[in-house]
# Entry
Amino acid sequence: MSDSRLPNELTLRKVAAALAILGIGVSTYITIADAGGGSPVCLAGGHGCETVANSKYSHLLGANVAALGIAGYVVLLAAAFTSGDAGRFVGFAGALIGIGFSLYLTYVELFVIDAVCQWCVASAVVMAALFGVNSARAIGYAGAELATGGEAHGQ
# Structure
């Protein structure tokens, strides 16, 4: 039951995997900088990354939010490697939670902390792309195995 305007599901899964790996990289960099007692280096200059990293919002229940990001991206990577509706559902749900949390953190940066970390923005952009890809996969291919009597085409 695929939409012929969408890329095949395997392509969507590969794109989701690449984006998740990129997200793991960004989140790992932020986490390592925090663990070393510093903050991520703002490549464009300024002190936004330092300000955000030193705010109370950079940790949730004692954990660096970037470490939570790593966990979320790992779940999304696993979903990209999982065929069928289970992978589609986990990918969509994980990306929905991730984009929701990214939107919250972006709001906090802009309106509470009054500073922007470009690494956090990069992670939010990656998560938004993952939400788009996983939404397309979930909506475009849901139940494809039932419609074809087997695995969805392109898996």
User: Anything to note?
Assistant: The first strand starts at residue 59 and ends at 60. The chain has a mean pLDDT of 91. The chain is about 70% helix and 5% strand.
